[in-house]
Amino acid sequence: MNNELKEISSFFETEYPLNKDGLRKLLSLFKLEKIKRGTQLLSAGTEEKKLRFLNKGVIREYYATSDKETNINFYTEPQFITDLTSFNANTKTKKYQEALSDVELLAIDKSSFRKLLNEYDCGKSFIELSFQRLLRNKELFEYNRLTKSPEELYNELFIYRPNWLEKIPQYHIASYLNITPETLSRIRKRIS
User: Fold this and answer.
1) If you average pLDDT over every residue of the chain, what do you get?
2) What is the pTM of this model?
3) Looking at domain 3-122, which CATH architecture does it have?
4) What would the DSSP string read from start to end of 72-138?
5) Which of 13, 60, 64, 180 could cross-link with 69 by S-S, CB 3.0 to 4.6 Å?
6) What distance in Å separates the CA atoms of residue 84 and residue 90, rounded to the nearest whole number?
7) In whole angstroms, what is the distance from residue 131 CA to residue 109 CA?
8) What end-to-end distance do the CA atoms of the chain give, in Å?
9) pLDDT per position as a tens digit, 139-162
10) Where are the domains of the chain?
């Protein structure tokens, strides 16, 4: 197996076990894409046309209005970064994604993926389990945002997402916490 497929293969073996033949065929359909820092990967109002897996790099996901951008997630580890709602329902996304570093992705177009799903039933469980995980994470995110202070949220990042604090600019972290960079700076001083 080539080196680019190592992370995604490991991901499927631990997270979503597929039969060996189905996995081999799925992996053969992914194409390597190298993206430069600052590149927009996804824009609101467009339809997600690819199933994308982050192999290396850092991506921010956010909502934007004419006056403000609000970060909702960061991807720093090998994982799928596709807007599954748009991808699965053929709808336009409300999200944006931007590469915060040079990025290496593996991508498969929607029609090839769907053809594979029809051939191998186990692929359907991947979609169902992915949606269940997405909904759990979204509910936890909303609960935390509504019930915890910015300082408590920052402490959770410190404990559960220390790589975010190392790899992501502080003004993006402040946006994620829905506070100003100055408030984040005060929180960091109190904690240290």
Assistant:
1) 87
2) 0.85
3) Sandwich (2.60)
4) EEEE-SSEE---HHHHHHT-B---EEEESS-EEEEEEEHHHHHHHHHH-THHHHHHHHHHHHHHHHH
5) 64
6) 10
7) 19
8) 45
9) 887 788 889 999 999 999 989 899
10) 3-122
